[in-house]
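User: My instructor asked us to take a sequence, write out its structure as tokens, and then describe one feature of it. I'm not sure where to start. Here is the sequence I was given:
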Amino acid sequence: MKTPLHTLLAVGLMALGLSAAAQTPVPVSNSFSQSPDGEFSVFNSITKYLVRGDAASLSSWFANTLDVTVISSTRNCSRRQAQEILRTFFESYTPRSFTVTHKASEANKKYLIGLLSAGGEVFQVTIYATSIGGETYKIQELSITRQAY
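Assistant: Let's start with the prediction itself. The structure tokens for your sequence are:
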């Protein structure tokens, strides 16, 4: 059985005594532009569309098929299905802000964890993107779960 990457990342953070909520927040507007090599610039547009609740534009970053978790429902779906799932989520939970709590990378892979304030609730968002061909990153996994306090 394959364990989702976001679960492994969360377990790793807990093993280090860290949680997404314990990380120092970084505002979206300054999230990745600070890196001189632009290592995380791939997330600039992604986080902008997430905060706007723009499922159509966000879906342009999706792989042809991806794993999507929204609240407690997980499924592997097409780009179009994922767009519809997010559109429905954004209709129910209007985004207000997004704060990056963790980012990491390794060869051709980028990870982002953040907190999305939407519809009067806080959600943890985990994004896993990979590069095919070295330049274009596509979201392979997107998870939006209620943040427990």
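For the description part of your assignment, you could build on this observation: The domain at 27-146 is CATH 3.10.450.50 (Nuclear Transport Factor 2; Chain: A,). Try explaining in your own words what that tells you about the chain.
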